[in-house]
Every structure is written in structure tokens, then in C-alpha cells.
Amino acid sequence: MSSQYLAQEKIWFDKCRFDDAERQYYERMNGPMKCCSAAPSQTSQETGANTILQDIARARENIQKSLAGSAACPAGDATELLTRMSSLELENQNLHKVVEDLRLALSKLESRVMMLERTPAGGATAACVKAAPVPQQSRAAPPAVEEEEDDDDLDLFGSDEEDDEAARVREERVKAYAEKKAKKPVLIAKSSILLDVKPWDDETDMAKLEQCVRSVQADGLLWGSSKLVPVGYGIRKLQIQCVVEDDKVGTDLLEEEITKFEDYVQSVDVAAFNKI
Asked: Of the candidates 7, 88, 151, 155, which lies 20 to 30 Å from 137 by C-alpha distance?
């Protein structure tokens, strides 16, 4: 009964055998394909190995270059150090020379001071008298005094006459020097000033404003060219040039005099100041 039932059922008893056959078939079919796929992988491996070898060669070259540069740097540093040391030695020698000269000068000065301290006051006065310049007439005076002493006839007014003569000569020389100095032209210091004169608004009469500015007169003041410069919103400022003598006219004086015209002038600024 059971055998009949099994005979009627559709059961695959040989499936294992068929599975083995299928596996063997696919292995035979896929065998050559595996070999073909292995060849590109082998070539790719060789290419990667070549790339690694090239990188290693480049790294070696870079290391050799860096070692050569590091070997060259100490030589350059040593040369620079030697140059600096030689320059420092020269400076040291020069300083030694200067110090020696200063020591010699100081020793000479000390010796002179000691000599002056040892010399009495009378000797110093005599030395000063000898060093003082003596007029030619006073030098010629002692022989005359000796002759008068020989004659036993003293002239009590001779020294006064000589002093008067020396004073007269000195006054003449001072007068001549003063006249010579007076003839030389005196250099007058002058400056060129550029002023910015700003009105209150756009309705201000700029022609009248310029007329008011030019009405300011002073000794050493000379007005020059002028122009109207736009500021904004229809307002224009007056830019005027003038030349002044520094000893007579200054910027404070100009600003004070121009700002007196309060109906037209709001402010005054110095745009440029140049010495002539």
C-alpha cells in the first residue's frame, strides 16, 4: 500500500546526482573565464607595483636632494658667521683705538688741570696778561716811557691819549661794520596761504563775499587769484590765494578779520600753507 502510494508521488530521488553533474558542468564552463579574468588582475597588480616603485624612486630622490641641501646650508652659515666675526673684530679694534685716544686726551687734560692748580694766582694773572692781545700803540709805549724816565720828565696824560685813540679806532671799526651790515639785503620770510571761505547757504552773494574778503588790507598782505568750488546742495565756497610776510601777518589775523563779515561768512579754513 505504501509502495503504491510512493509510486504515485512525483519524488526526485536522484537530485543529488543531478546537482553534482550541474556543478561539474558550470565548473567546466566557468574555468576558462576565471583564467581570463585573472590576467587583467595580474596586469593591474604589475601596474600597481610599477607605480609603487616609481613613488619609492621619487622619495629617494627627494631625500637625496634634501640631504644635499642640508649639507650645503651649514657651509653657507659658516661663511656668514666668519664674515660677521671679521666685521665684529674690525669694529672692536676701532673701538679700542677710540678708547685709547680718549684716554690720552683725558690724561693730557688731567695734567693741564694739575698744572693750573699748582700755579699761584699771580702766575695765572701774568699768563693771562701775556696771552691777551695788545694794541700796536701800547706796545710802542714802553720805550717812550723809558726815555721819559731817563729824562726824569713824567707825562701823566700820555696813557689817557692812547686810550682815547684806541677807543676812537674801535668805534670807527664798529661803525664801518654796522654800515657794511646795513647795506646787505634783508631776507624777508614769506608764505603762500590758500583759504577756504564758506558761506551760510546757497543764497549768499558770493561776489559780495569775495569783495568783503579782499577788503581786508594789512602791511605785508597781498591777495591773489580766487575761484568758487562746489560743496554740495548748490552751495559753493570761495577759495582764495594770498601771500603774506610771516613777521607781519598770520593766519589768526586773517581768520579774525574775515569772520567779522558775519552776514556772508560762516567759517574760514586754511586749505594750504607753503613757505616761499
From this structure: 151
Query: What pTM, to 2 d.p., does this model score?
Result: 0.35
Phi, psi values for residue 222, rounded to 5°: -135, 120
Our CA dihedral for 206, 209, 215, 216, rounded to 10 degrees, sits at: -130
Spatial separation of the C-alpha atoms in residues 243 and 225, rounded to whole Å: 11
Place of cell 569772520: 259
Report pLDDT digits (tens) over 50-89. 777 778 878 888 887 877 765 555 555 678 888 888 888 8
| Separation of alpha carbons 240 and 225, rounded Å | 6
Cβ–Cβ under 8 Å, residues 237 and 208: no
Contact (Cβ atoms closer than 8 angstroms) between residue 195 and residue 269: yes
Alpha helices in the chain (DSSP H): 2-8, 15-118, 121-131, 136-150, 158-183, 206-214, 251-258
Q: Determine the Cα–Cα distance for residues 137 and 116; give it in Å rounded to an integer.
A: 32
Dmax (CA) for the chain in angstroms is 201
Residue appearing with cell numbers 620770510:
189
Buried b (16+ CB within 10 A) or exposed e, 157-184: eeeeebeeeeeeeeeeeeeeeeeeeeee
CA–CA gap between residue 243 and residue 273 (Å, rounded): 10
Place of cell 693750573: 116
**pLDDT tops 70 at residue 137:** no
Q: Looking up cell 574760514, which residue turns up?
A: 268
Do residues 259 and 216 lie in contact, with contact meaning Cβ atoms separated by under 8 Å? no
- Please give the Cα distance from 7 to 236 (Å, whole number): 124
Identify the bridge partners of residue 269 per DSSP, sorted by sequence position.
Answer: 196
In this structure, the number of other CB atoms found within 10 A of the CB of residue 212 comes to: 19
At position 137, the amino acid (one-letter code) is: Q
What is the signed CA dihedral for 49, 55, 59, 60, rounded to 10 degrees?
50
CB-based contact 141:157 (threshold 8 Å): no
